[in-house]
Amino acid sequence: MTGEPLSTAALVKISIGAIVAGASVQAYGQYQSNKNAQSQAKAQSAWNLYNSKLAQREADAEQAANLFESKQQKKAADRLKARGRAIRGKSGVEEEGSPLLVMEDTAAELAKEQQQTRISGSRRVSAFESRSILDISKASAAKARASGFGKAAIVSAGGTLLSGAGSAAAVGATA
Q1: Fewer CB atoms < 10 Å away: N or C end of the chain?
Q2: Can you tell me the distance from the alpha carbon of 59 to that of 3, in angstroms, rounded to the nearest whole number?
Q3: pLDDT for residue 130
Q4: What DSSP letter does each residue of 106-140 carry, written as one string?
Q5: Which helix (H) or strand (E) element contains residue 80?
Q6: Residue 111: which of 121, 122, 103 has the closest Cα?
Q7: Which residues make Cβ contacts (< 8 Å) with residue 90, sequence separation at least 6?
Q8: What is the dihedral of CA 4, 9, 12, 16, to 10 degrees?
């Protein structure tokens, strides 16, 4: 440079170039920011779907364990009742009156225990299934957010470019 001042036309061109470059950089930043948000939302959706499947597997395993435990409890109760009948039969005690009432009370208590085991297991299964449904809902919401971020990336970047072009045109028109 020779130290001469720049002409107004040159300053206008530099200003327009700076406005366009600035708008382009800003638009790219907005685009990338929204694309990153979209990627994060997609990853969150995938994670929620994984958690949903995991919760459903836990519900299935809990259901199987509950069924097994209930069957084992019934077998143990049947053995206990059979042993009681055998002992009473061996001793010659008649199954009427007090011994009959004891047998009825024992059978009722064993049935209550079996019912409580089934109820507790069903509650645990329901909790896992509810968690699975909630995770599916979260995954759907994250997927919807991802779609919105993708659209926002294009719209916000386009808006910035148009705004930059408008500013550049305004500077050019005033020169």
Answers
A1: N
A2: 80
A3: 92
A4: HHHHHHHHHHHHHHHHHHHHHHHHHHHHHHHHHHH
A5: helix 8-91
A6: 103
A7: none
A8: -120
The residue to which tokens 């957010």 are assigned = 145
What region does 33 belong to: left with phi over 0, alpha with psi -120 to 50, or beta?
A: alpha
pLDDT in tens, 81-110: 888 777 777 777 666 667 667 777 888 888
Positions in the chain whose pLDDT score sits under 50: none
> Pick from 128, 146, 109: which is nearest to 51 by CA?
128
DSSP state of 5: P
Furthest CA-CA distance within the chain: 129
* pLDDT number for residue 64: 93
CA separation for the pair 161, 27 (Å, rounded): 6
Give dist(CA 143, CA 19) in Å, integer: 36
What pLDDT was estimated at residue 53?
92
What long-range pairs does 38-45 form, CB within 8 A, spacing at least 24?
Answer: 38/146, 38/147, 38/149, 38/150, 38/153, 39/146, 41/142, 41/143, 41/145, 41/146, 41/149, 42/142, 42/143, 42/146, 44/138, 44/139, 44/142, 45/139, 45/140, 45/142, 45/143, 45/146
Q: Beta-carbon neighbour count of residue 19 at 10 Å?
A: 20
- Predicted confidence at residue 97, as pLDDT, reads 62
Whether the Cβ atoms of residue 171 and residue 19 lie closer than 8 Å to each other: yes
